[in-house]
Amino acid sequence: MVESIQASLPDLRKWLPWAVGGYTRIDAIRYVRESVNAWNEHRAYDFAIRQPSDPDRHLGNVSIWWTSRQGAVGEIGYWLRSDEASKGFMTEAVAGMLRVGFEELTMHRIVLRIAVGNRASERVAEKLGFVLEGTLRDEVRVGDEWLDHTIWSMLSHEYDVHVDRFRAETWI
Ligand SMILES: CC(C)(COP(=O)(O)OP(=O)(O)OC[C@H]1O[C@@H](n2cnc3c(N)ncnc32)[C@H](O)[C@@H]1OP(=O)(O)O)[C@@H](O)C(=O)NCCC(=O)NCCS
User: Fold this and answer.
1) Sheet harboring 109-115: ordered strands across?
2) Top-level CATH class of 2-168?
3) What confidence category does residue 100 fall into, taking pLDDT thresholds of 50, 70 and 90?
4) Model confidence pLDDT, tens digit, residues 13-51
5) What would the DSSP string read from start to end of 40-52?
6) Which of ligand 1's atoms lies nearest the C-alpha of 115?
7) What's the gap in Å between 110 CA and the centre of ligand 1?
């Protein structure tokens, strides 16, 4: 994971605050510890993206977490290593997270937040059928810059409409 992040820093640090200051093995250990705690406490579920044909090569991470238990709302976040981009990996991985969120965690609404200008991430949302709701102003600080985020959602009954297409694409 460390090698994958380090090789992708120029792309990651455009959009993700945690990538701005570089990334070390210590950062990875902290991430994995928090990840295990969050999983055990049923707060968040982080997954590694790897191919069965090359299981030691880390391609990226995708996560789903609860933002409101009462409202049954979750959010998905992700990154993929730069030299494997635009091959459809993240669309497939996020479809997998939608299956987990709606079918296993019984969420009602799942959200993506995407920085304005991040076309690759918007394409992931569009291909999966997320609905664009609006823009949150200056929602994240990345380095010295405040970025607006667009917010995208899918509701459980919308997932029920998309799920046959996800299966036909062999995303889930
Ligand atoms: C965004 C990201 C996760 C996409 O992962 P991916 O595996 O490349 O996604 P997919 O291949 O499933 O789909 C990407 C789509 O964006 C398109 N795309 C890629 N770069 C693009 C660009 N600069 N402008 C327009 N479209 C672009 C691809 O062509 C593809 O669309 P298509 O299938 O219609 O051709 C990955 O690029 C990444 O990790 N970026 C840096 C971190 C990040 O932005 N994380 C998300 C924060 S919300």
Assistant:
1) 44-49, 60-68, 73-80, 109-115, 145-155, 131-142
2) alpha beta
3) very high
4) 999 999 999 999 999 999 999 999 999 999 999 999 999
5) HTTSEEEEEE-BT
6) 48
7) 19
